[in-house]
């Protein structure tokens, strides 16, 4: 696929779809024609730019080179119905949903980690889960240097990871509490999107509970990491937690390496790694926080320290904008690899 400009479709006009439109413009992706599809036709405004959203149909993909599906976590997305229709008409699909991620015939790509896998596509490329993306960006440079045998991760995931409705629920709950309504806040919120109250609260429940009482979100961190890093022998255990943050996922990541490595060496490796910003000076209160990374495309890493009791144990703190690097930006980066 080599042209000067490309016909691009964005499917979905929710928080991720809007962010895809924003990222395409900001990164000056070479677009000849841009089409936006959703379940229903309407006009949307993104940073002052008006986009005519058309009702999705198979015929709408005629002439499209790259189709970016915004995806809906936790349910079967539009890609299940329309991805093959788009591919039939000559498009390459980049899907942000979960439907194709573990299909062995579909590459699962984070460009800083496994850009070469883009070449293996047969019409569809999958975008990983938001929490997986930032974790593998942090893990891969260390794994390449000394090998990683074990990962224990706790994620602190923002409301926007559950969609626009979850952001609104958090906002409404905060408003009700501010008015003195501490009791039954979650019950009082209309159109509740999340299973628990989030304002003034956290809860360890993202996705549905499946094998061994882990959630499917937790298993994504395991299986997707194995696939992206081509490292199925890394032992990974995860707990995913929803926190009252608008945008920006944080992760407390513990790793055990195969070979010893100093904290200074880890810092030096990460400081030179693509897509990483090292923010690690805790004595001066310098470490990544979601409020500071919102709107950024990089993965921010800090609080790197040795385990005081395990020889090859290390901790680090990893933060990224889940709508950008965790979704829209990574998808556009895949498209950029595709056209190279």
Word description of this protein:
The chain is an alpha/beta fold and 340 residues long. It folds into three domains: 136 residues, Rossmann fold, CATH 3.40.50.720; 148 residues, Dihydrodipicolinate Reductase, domain 2 (2-Layer Sandwich), CATH 3.30.360.10; 35 residues. The chain has ten helices and 13 strands. Strands 3-4-2-1-5-6-7 form a seven-stranded mixed sheet, sandwiched between helices. A six-stranded mixed sheet has the order 9-8-10-13-12-11. Strand 3 and strand 4 form a beta hairpin. The termini are close together. The model has no long low-confidence stretch (mean pLDDT 95).
Question: Helices, strands, pairings?
Answer:
Layout lengths: L5 E6 L3 H12 L4 E8 L3 E5 L2 E7 L10 E4 L8 H11 L3 E4 L15 H4 L9 E3 L3 H17 L1 E10 L6 H15 L6 H4 L27 H14 L5 E8 L6 E9 L5 H9 L4 E3 L11 H4 L5 E8 L6 E8 L3 H16 L1
Q: Which assembly state applies to the chains in this document?
A: single chain
The helix-strand sequence is EHEEEEHEHEHEHHHEEHEHEEH
CATH fold label of the largest domain: Dihydrodipicolinate Reductase, domain 2
For the largest beta-sheet, the strand count, sense and barrel status come to:
7 strands, mixed
**Low-pLDDT residue intervals, each spanning 5 or more residues:** none
Strand order of the largest sheet: 3-4-2-1-5-6-7
The CATH superfamily of the largest domain bears the name Dihydrodipicolinate Reductase, domain 2
Compute the number of structural domains: 3
How much of the residues is beta strand, in percent? 15-25%
**Overall outline:** globular
- What is the helix content? 25-40%
Rg of Cα set = 20 Å
Mean pLDDT: 95
**Estimated structural class:** alpha/beta
CATH architecture annotation name of the largest domain? 2-Layer Sandwich
CATH class of the largest domain: Alpha Beta
Number of helices: 10
| E-strand count | 13
């Amino acid at each position: 696929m080599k042209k000067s400009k490309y016909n691009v479709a964005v499917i979905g006009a929710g928080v991720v779809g809007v962010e895809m439109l924003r990222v395409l413009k900001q990164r000056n992706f070479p677009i000849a024609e841009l089409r936006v599809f959703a379940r229903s036709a309407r006009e949307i405004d993104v940073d002052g730019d008006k986009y005519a959203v058309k009702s999705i149909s198979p015929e709408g993909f005629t002439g499209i080179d790259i189709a970016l599906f915004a995806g809906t976590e936790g349910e079967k997305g539009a890609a299940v119905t329309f991805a093959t229709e788009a591919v039939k008409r000559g498009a390459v699909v980049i899907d942000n949903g979960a439907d194709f991620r573990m299909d062995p015939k579909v590459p699962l790509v984070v460009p800083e980690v496994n850009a070469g896998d883009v070449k293996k596509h047969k019409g569809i490329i999958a975008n990983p889960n938001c929490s997986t993306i930032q974790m593998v960006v942090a893990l891969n440079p260390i794994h390449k240097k000394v090998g990683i045998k074990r990962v224990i991760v706790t994620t602190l995931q923002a409301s926007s990871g559950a969609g626009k409705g979850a952001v609104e629920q958090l906002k409404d709950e905060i408003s009700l509490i501010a008015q003195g309504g501490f009791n039954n806040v979650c019950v009082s919120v209309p159109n509740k999107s999340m299973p628990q109250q989030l304002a003034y609260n956290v809860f360890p429940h993202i996705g549905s509970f499946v094998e061994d009482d882990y959630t499917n979100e937790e298993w994504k961190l395991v299986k997707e990491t194995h696939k992206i890093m081509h490292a199925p022998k890394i032992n990974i255990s995860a707990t995913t937690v929803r926190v009252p943050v608008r945008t920006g996922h944080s992760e407390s990541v513990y790793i055990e390496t195969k070979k010893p490595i100093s904290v200074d060496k880890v810092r030096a490796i990460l400081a030179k790694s693509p897509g990483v910003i090292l923010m690690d000076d805790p004595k001066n209160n310098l470490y990544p926080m979601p409020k500071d990374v919102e709107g950024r495309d990089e993965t921010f890493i800090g609080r790197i320290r040795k385990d005081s009791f395990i020889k090859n144990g290390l901790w680090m703190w990893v933060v990224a904008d889940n709508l950008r690097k965790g979704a829209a930006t990574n998808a556009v980066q895949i498209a950029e690899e595709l056209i190279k």
